[in-house]
Records
---
Amino acid sequence: QLQLQESGPGLVKPSETLSLTCTVSGGSISSSSYYWGWIRQPPGKGLEWIGSIYYSGSTYYNPSLKSRVTISVDTSKNQFSLKLSSVTAADTAVYYCAGGDCSGGSCYSSPIDYWGQGTLVTVSS
Amino acid sequence: SYVLTQPPSVSVAPGQTARITCGGNNIGSKSVHWYQQKPGQAPVLVVYDDSDRPSGIPERFSGSNSGNTATLTISRVEAGDEADYYCQVWDSSSVVFGGGTKLTVL
């Protein structure tokens, strides 16, 4: 059973870059059986997909955030990361790292099977 | 971009059946996944591929998908089912979530 854990600063200043890391245990991040991604949830609001990365290295981002987002993988540490630049108060949210098992079919239709516990990031000076 | 529409809230008495809808253009041609989120917790997958249940999810949770509407049905609703529910699909390699529905057990 995969387990995911987010880590990173809980407070980021406006205009700076938000950086979070997700550590994966119980499976290999480089396996073709999984995809990885980030999802956020502003306080009191719904879920918003940020982007995903695949074993091939391909990345897909939410068009509304694409210009500010980078998702990358560090296979040596079994981690993947999120960088969101030029943050504003609107980026304040609980950030979840997540993973999907696509061993049974296409990664582009599989559900999100695994979630981290989430980490609150507040953007404030 | 693809839009999924859910009712903001659904209320149901214990023991009754709750139906939560998720509307989208020709959503019946897509695989729909449903998540349950309780306060302060991460979402949990309760139905995937329209109508399949992950291991450990009660049979009371079921799903259907046809035309422009997918539906999550919760039979014999219990107090512990009170939560927010989100539908999700893939569209052009992007994940799309519905706005969420708060299920209140009266």
Note: Chain A has a mean pLDDT of 95.
---
Amino acid sequence: AQKITQTQPGMFVQEKEAVTLDCTYDTSDPSYGLFWYKQPSSGEMIFLIYQGSYDQQNATEGRYSLNFQKARKSANLVISASQLGDSAMYFCAMRVYGGATNKLIFGTGTLLAVQP
Amino acid sequence: DAGITQSPRHKVTETGTPVTLRCHQTENHRYMYWYRQDPGHGLRLIHYSYGVKDTDKGEVSDGYSVSRSKTEDFLLTLESATSSQTSVYFCAISESGGGDNEQFFGPGTRLTVL
């Protein structure tokens, strides 16, 4: 079964420190994609970063990087130099194929609180 | 920001009444999706559309129907709302059905069924 697991319901981090949010996935499809979205308290879903299963290098977008370990089926999000504005819910998602289009399967999310 | 709007943004209704949520996009994207978000479940796909009048079921489609008569509009209908359909509903769009095209999300609709 295709599944995304986020085992950390909530985390704290001090401002300016780095933090890693865990995500493991399960799929038998050799081609897949992994996404991270941020949901601040205002409710909108904001795309952060993408990693394809065939990408050789870990994806990076500014302060966000994705630690992709294919053999372990993990796709952890690393946020460097945390800021107060990073406080939000973070969702890991996996693109799966089937039907007429790709679909996203989401994890249950990790609530990150950045402390001053 | 992707041009996606949802209406209404908030709605309170009673059990057994029909409800229609609207998603409108100005990006001319082919693919549109409806998700619901519930605590402990993340986002779950209800229905999606891959073109005008082309729709298919997602993971949690029971009790919901959709229609897409124009590229820009994707409607989600609860034929007879139940309390279990109290949730936050998100619409999303994507330009492509595959590859690394991310889905862009609307602002969400908070629906309460009493």
Note: The interface with chain A takes residues 31, 33, 40-45, 48, 50, 54, 56, 58, 88, 90, 92, 94, 97-100, 102-105, 107-108 of chain B (CB under 8 Å).
